[in-house]
Amino acid sequence: MSITAPRGTADILPSDILKWKYIEGKISEICDKFGFEEIRTPIFENTELFERGVGDTTDVVQKEMYTFNDKGGRSITLRPEGTACVARAFLEHNIYSKPLPAKLFYLISCYRYEKPQAGRLREFHQFGAECFGSQSPAVDGEIITLAHTVLTELGIDDVTLNINSIGCPECRKKYNEALKDYFRPHIESGELCETCRGRFDKNPLRILDCKSPVCGKIAESAPVLLDYICDECADHFEKVKGYLDAVGINYVIDGTIVRGLDYYTKTVFEFKTSLGGAAGTVCGGGRYDGLIEELGGAPTPAIGFAMGIERIILALTDNGKMPDFESIPDVYVANIGDESDFYATVLVNKLRKAGLKAERDLCARSLKAQMKYANKIGAKYSIVIGEDEAKSNSAILKNMNIKTEISVSLENADDILKAVMEEK
Ligand code: ATP
Ligand code: MG
Questions:
Q1: Do residues 147 and 267 lie in contact, with contact meaning Cβ atoms separated by under 8 Å?
Q2: Whose CA is nearest to atom 1 of ligand 1?
Q3: Which residues' Cβ are closer than 6 Å to ligand 1?
Q4: Which residues contact 157 (CB under 8 A, 6 or more apart)?
């Protein structure tokens, strides 16, 4: 039996690659306007980074990581997300000693052992942005505006922004007690799942993000943090809303969002869309003022988000906003026999240098078969080079669509370039 790709992974074939490049290009362009610079980190990291940086009570760390020992016996994990990786790089390269805030973005593949379905893969891709070094609510506004701009400029026109504040460790103390009081009877009755029973002591907030339907149902009526928020966090949240109002971004306050990762504080948010079937949440993010300290750095406030590229593609395909891309050759150079073989090679390279997409026969096919091929790949023009053409440095340029023919000089690419440009 032939070998197939591992479950939950997908090849990105040439027919789709231009869609990916388009999305990545648009993202890079918008990030540049916002003053965010790209960073690339390794696909794998020491496992400890995610245990500390994502949190060992999260689903991601407890159930979804691809972790293995390398040949040197080190525990290695394929990155399940980008924030911890970028935070590590921020510390490792003293980025904190450069002018702050540091504004970084990334386009990466991520790995999670999930149950594959539409919009949920084991290898998937994220665009993420992180901003380190400011606790001002203006950054929360800026980062949410960046995510919103990317989604809307790409054409996901029906996004809803849900926001919440999950407070600081101070307000969470009181809240954790309230949560425990609420969940305790459900622990005692054995209704909550085993993972949540562990979370009850360590981090009851995590129970609110459990994917088990039973736990989810119970969590629906749990107390919400907004009722326990301290004055400082409440003020921060008000200002964040003010920035969103100022730029006209609509939002819904949703007290049930806690986000899947342990390190979030204050603002958390998600962008959802009904497009793309099961795609659901296209972007999630929030403030994580405790992460850098958790990883051994000085206390450094930070905020960021990540969006799933596969889910963006599903949404854009669903609403017809994914542009059609095709890569068609401008000119196909056919040749007759050995005499004109090298001539054809020189000619296609001359045309490429002039900026045209030019191809020639690479299979030693007959002239008839070459022309059939030129038709199949949709070449706009063709030129046939025989002995006469090679000698006279001139040939007939045939428009493959409207079947017109003109005589062109082959000395340089000028005549051909002119004809192709006129059609464009
Ligand atoms: P979900 O609740 O859908 O599992 P999450 O909270 O685990 O999402 P994050 O860790 O916040 O997701 O990742 C940010 C974004 O990355 C998500 O909003 C989603 O668009 C995308 N994403 C997450 N997991 C996957 C996956 N397994 N396959 C494809 N995209 C994903
Ligand atoms: Mg998840």
A1: no
A2: 281
A3: 81, 112, 114, 119-121, 124, 126, 260, 281-284, 306-308, 310-311
A4: 319, 321
Beta-strand relationship, 358-360 and 331-335: parallel
Query: Ligand 2 centre from 50 Cα, in Å?
Result: 15
pLDDT tens-digit readout, 8-55: 999 999 999 999 999 999 999 999 999 999 999 999 999 999 999 888
Q: State the sign of the Cα–Cα–Cα–Cα dihedral 31, 35, 36, 37.
A: positive
SS3 label, residue 256? coil
Bridge partners (DSSP) of residue 75 are: 69
Residue of minimum CA distance from atom 25 in ligand 1: 120
Q: Give all domains of the chain, ordered by start, each with its CATH number.
A: 14-168+229-318 (3.30.930.10), 331-423 (3.40.50.800)
- Nearest CA, atom 5, ligand 1: 260
49 Cβ neighbours under 8 A, 6+ residues apart: 77, 84, 85, 88, 295
Q: 40 in helix, strand or coil?
A: coil
pLDDT bucket at 152, cuts 50 / 70 / 90: very high
Closest ligand, as measured to the CA of 281:
1
Express each pLDDT in 273-326 by its tens digit: 988 776 689 999 999 999 999 999 999 999 999 999 999 999 999 999 999 998
**Phi–psi pair at 224, nearest 5 degrees:** -105, 145
Q: Whose CA is nearest to atom 23 of ligand 1?
A: 308
Q: For residue 259, give the ligand 1 atom closest to its CA.
A: 6
In ligand 1, the atom with minimum distance to the C-alpha of 279 is 20
